[in-house]
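ok posting inputs for the manganese (II) ion job
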Amino acid sequence: MRILLTNDDGIYAQGLEALHDALLRMGTVDIVAPSVEQSGVSHSITYLEPLLAHDVFRHGRLFGKAVRGSPADCVKLAMLQICNTPPDLVVSGINAGANTGINVLYSGTVAGAIEGAFFGITSVAVSLTSSEKPDYVPAAQIATGLIEQILESETRPGGLWNLNLPELRPGWPVGVKTVPMGLGRYGEAMERRIDPRGRPYFWTMTVAGQHHTLEPGTDVEAVAEGFVTLTPLHFDLTDRRRLGESANRTWRLE
Ligand code: MN
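and the output
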């Protein structure tokens, strides 16, 4: 089994290292990951500038390729230039922080997995809920066990999955749930500050716990209750229901 591993926290992130070490039990792992953090870049790509990449070593051995670009760039570059044989699996993570609800659409981690699915390869995004001292090693073991089960059950390649782990406090995780992503907006804010030259600048903030109503039956709720969540995703943005509703409509060209 050949595995391509990326993330959006950068090639030096703890979550990537832990997942690399855990995934080794499944096969060979090639790392192509951003050289610096790319959280929140979603599915952006580099195409107005050259895409630079260099080797990164760990304990004197080649660890992976660091790319001055986004997670989607990394997977694209790996598929088109770096991997001699296409991987059987693309994994993106472990992200520092959950990628549940509509955060999925901002996530560079999930975009890395989506890019893998574009190439028809089974792809899994893995994220761990933020906590004071996140422990990526057990999280990586749990994630790898679930990735193995995903591969056992997939009838054809190309399936796209979003896997989220709750905080690993005593007794958690309490189980695994397959759930849809939440659609609510919550805890968003922009903070206005003044720079030393008197000009305003802004920081995008998340306000934890404020107006926070958990949507029942979603990934947001399940992760908050201590479950590991699995959400099958697809990148077809067409609204099939409305497409059907408007099928018989005629449009005027004016
Ligand atoms: Mn991140």
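notes: The chain has a mean pLDDT of 95. The domain at 2-185+214-235 is CATH 3.40.1210.10 (Stationary-phase Survival Protein Sure Homolog; Chain: A,).
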